[in-house]
Design a protein that fits this description.
- The complex is a heterodimer of chains A (296) and B (345).
- Chain A is mainly α.
- Chain A folds into 3 domains: 1-83, no CATH class; 86-242; 247-296.
- Chain A contains 9 helices and no strands.
- The longest helix of chain A is centred in the C-terminal third of the chain and has 51 residues, at 245-295.
- Chain B has one domain: Alpha/Beta hydrolase fold, catalytic domain (Rossmann fold).
- Chain B is 43% helix and 14% strand.
- The chains are: A mainly alpha (296), B alpha/beta (345).
Chain lengths: 296, 345
């Protein structure tokens, strides 16, 4: 075939020959911009290149378009699924629950007999030599539960917004292809279209009370979890006489009080000096005025 | 629609320029304390008062009070983009109060320490040096602190400029205010001690994640081959994510009294054993706000007009965003001359 004889076939051949590089580019680009390397279900860059591939294939346009957007949705779902607090907090929860159920200070480290279990579990944080530690542990478990619930509520709202952003992006792409609205003629244009639609949905989320409540709840739950973790660890450090946070904070408080007192005393002393100086100057001026008056 | 061949070329070019910009950035330092020479003239706790002397003093001293969040070098980013330099070149002896980084024990610093001791102390030092009270220029949270000082001790403030400063924290468009309303700031301060800058950054990023985490870096290749623009970009990154931690107690007090109780426009704020209200401010005030400010909505800043008599109050609307007021080219043309003219009035 002479070059240029069948431009479409040549063009397709060219396209096929560089498709792999194109896909590799998007993977690379998205990873470099730290979008989400290693997200299960593939990389968001793949989804954009897939969409792009569909946009040029007019023969099976509708079904391929749906499939391409479905793939993007799948990746959004996978990204949010990966962001769930599974591994670390779950492991922590399992370990803590086991410790709580076993009971700290139980020398035998054995489960109580069945008839005794409810009594032990319900009152172990109120009686016995280690009931305060048990209480701390129970509070930590509750804080952990609360944190996981709060995290899931936030993630669900964000997930919903991301999916809604994709839907509006799809609607806008379809409208543009149908002649309603400006069609992007560059990849950057396509990206801007996604960004604009997604951000608009996110702004709506931000403006609502549901997000404010979920965000505050997660923030409060995180702070509570951190506090309870520290308190739990600190109680053992105190018991063992090791350096601990309680003592450190106490020292910091006393130090700052001393620094504040010194600073304010110095300022008062400086002010007193200035007032003395002003008074001295006033006396000098008065003396000068008297002398000047007596000369006249 | 997209032409595939052009699109591949576009993608390849984007990657080439991204790599180029990344490579060029390796040779650029982002560390800066500002572009204008200065000297430390006073210290209290971790705070330092810097002086930027003009070639010849022809105007009143100006004390700049920046926010506790982020670092003040944004006001002196480069020689061309410097509010500090603009004031200095207009003959003002310029002073900047840098709050510094809170050390461990500073978690117990209170607003009384920051406003009643550090800020008041700095204003007194400037007044002693020049024999007259300074003009105060407060930026964002620093503007709130300046208003508080102007109300606490009116004789220490000649004129007051508030730049993108919230006064009413409960206006409808105030997303940050709405997010803050249900947060337990005492728990946050208790959990962290000093509240990490990274925690605060997360909150700020959550207001504009698509722009800050995606678009900003998609634009980076456009800076390839432009070392000046690339250096500015890196300094801005350094500024955005290299802020100081927040002294926990003062942070919680500020969030509760201002963001939650909205006390500045209500019954007043408890400070230094007094109830501070805006009606006590005696100095003439110029308020500059940004029309597209996502952190301090115009209504939040303009609320000041309801508390200062009109003969002593003036305002200027800037068509831009929060940072644009002090770093944009238009600010240089529009805001900086306005400031110097008003101070000379």
């Amino acid at each position: 075939m002479v070059s240029g004889e069948h431009p479409e076939a040549e063009w397709l051949a060219f396209f096929q020959s560089i498709e792999r590089q194109g896909r590799a580019f998007w993977r690379e680009a998205v990873q470099q911009t730290a979008a989400a390397p290693g997200i299960p279900g593939g990389n968001p860059g793949d989804a954009f290149s897939e969409l792009w591939r569909v946009l040029k294939n007019r023969d099976r346009f509708d079904e391929e378009m749906d499939a391409a957007f479905e793939k993007m949705r799948g990746q959004v779902d996978a990204a949010f699924s990966a962001a769930e607090p599974t591994t670390l907090t779950d492991a922590l929860a399992v370990a803590l629950r086991k410790a709580a159920e076993t009971g700290i200070g139980d020398e035998a480290q054995l489960d109580p007999p069945l008839w005794l279990a409810p009594w032990v579990y319900s009152i172990s944080h109120r009686i016995g030599p280690f009931h305060e530690e048990q209480q701390t542990l129970n509070e930590l478990l509750l804080a952990l539960d609360h944190h996981q619930e709060a995290h899931q509520r936030c993630a669900a709202l964000l997930h919903g917004a991301a999916r809604e952003g994709l839907s509006r992006f799809q609607t806008r792409v379809l409208a543009a292809l149908g002649g309603n609205g400006e069609a992007p003629d560059t990849l950057r244009g396509l990206y801007e279209m996604w960004l604009t639609e997604s951000e608009a949905v996110y702004d709506e989320l931000l403006a609502g009370d549901a997000w404010a409540a979920a965000f505050a709840d997660l923030s409060n739950a995180s702070a509570q979890l951190l506090s309870h973790c520290r308190e739990h660890v600190d109680s053992f450090l105190v018991m063992l006489g090791f350096p601990n946070r309680r003592d450190l904070v106490d020292t910091q408080r006393r130090l700052l009080t001393v620094e504040r007192q010194q600073r304010r005393q110095a300022e008062e002393s400086n002010t007193a000096k200035l007032l003395d100086e002003v008074e001295k100057l006033r006396r000098e001026v008065a003396a000068l005025q008297r002398r000047s008056g007596s000369k006249r | 629609m997209i032409d595939p061949t052009t699109a591949y070329r576009e993608a390849a070019e984007w990657q080439r320029r991204f790599a180029q910009a990344a490579g060029e950035s390796l040779g650029i330092t982002d560390a800066t304390d500002g572009a204008t020479p200065r000297e430390a003239v006073w210290r209290a706790g971790g705070a330092t008062l810097y002086h930027y002397p003009p070639a010849k003093v022809t105007a009143t001293p100006v004390l700049i009070v920046y926010s506790l969040v982020n670092r003040p070098f944004i006001l002196d980013l480069t020689e061309e983009r410097s509010l500090v330099r603009a004031l200095r070149d207009a003959g003002h002896p310029v002073y900047l109060l840098d709050w510094g980084d809170p050390a461990g024990a500073d978690r117990f610093l209170e607003l009384d320490d920051y406003i009643g001791d550090f800020l008041r102390g700095a204003a007194r030092r400037v007044a002693e040096i020049h024999g007259a009270p300074p003009d105060l220029l407060g930026v964002c949270q620093g503007g709130v602190f300046s208003l508080c000082l102007a109300a606490l001790e009116p004789s220490l403030v000649r004129r007051l400029i508030t730049l993108v400063t919230p006064v009413d924290f409960h206006t409808p468009a105030d997303t940050l205010g709405r997010l803050a309303r249900k947060m337990d700031f005492d728990s946050v301060a208790d959990a962290f001690g000093n509240v990490p800058a990274a925690w605060l950054n997360t909150v700020f990023i959550s207001l504009k994640p698509y722009r800050l985490l995606s678009q900003r870096y998609m634009d980076l290749p456009e800076l390839a081959g432009d070392p000046v623009a690339l250096a500015d970009f890196l300094r801005m990154e350094h500024w955005m994510y290299g802020g100081p931690d927040q002294a926990g107690t003062a942070f919680a007090q500020f969030a509760k009294r201002f963001y939650q109780e909205n006390a500045l426009v209500g019954d007043g704020v408890e400070l230094c054993g007094q109830r501070v209200t805006l009606t006590a401010v005696q100095a003439p005030v110029l308020t500059i706000f940004a029309l597209n400010d996502h952190l301090v909505p115009p209504a939040a800043a303009r609320a000041l007009s309801r508390h200062i008599p009109s003969e002593r109050y003036r305002e200027h609307a800037f068509d831009g965003g929060h940072l644009g007021v002090f770093v944009s080219r238009r600010a240089r043309r529009e805001i900086f001359p306005e400031l110097t003219a008003w101070l000379a009035d």
